[in-house]
């Protein structure tokens, strides 16, 4: 739950200064969300693709002209849809 609170606080702070960012940074930043239908296997593959994308851009120190950028990602079944026992797939929780 602490992660969700932290994300919410960072997102609210970003929204508050969105328009004050320099033009290039303002145009490059993004907030996006959508709902889709995925199988358990597709969600697992999606998670791995996103992690690989994060890893590709991760760096310890900044390049000239870089700024710290927060990237938040969450993908989860709709809490309102409990699914069925057959759909659970005996997940590992990772």
What is the approximate shape?
globular
How many strands, which pairing sense, and closed or not: the largest β-sheet?
Answer: none
C-alpha Rg (nearest Å): 17 Å
pLDDT below 50 for ≥5 consecutive residues: which ranges? none
Number of helical stretches of at least 4 residues: 3
Can you tell me about this structure?
The protein has 94 residues and is mainly α. It is built from three helices and no strands. The chain has helices spanning 2-17, 23-28, 40-57. The two termini are 17 Å apart. The model has no long low-confidence stretch (mean pLDDT 86).
Short description:
The protein has 94 residues and is mainly alpha-helical. 43% of the residues lie in helices and 0% in strands. The longest helix has 18 residues, at 40-57.
Topology:
Blueprint: H1 2-17, H2 23-28, H3 40-57
Please describe the structure with a list of short key phrases separated by commas or semicolons.
mainly alpha; 94 residues; globular; 0% strand; 43% helix; single chain
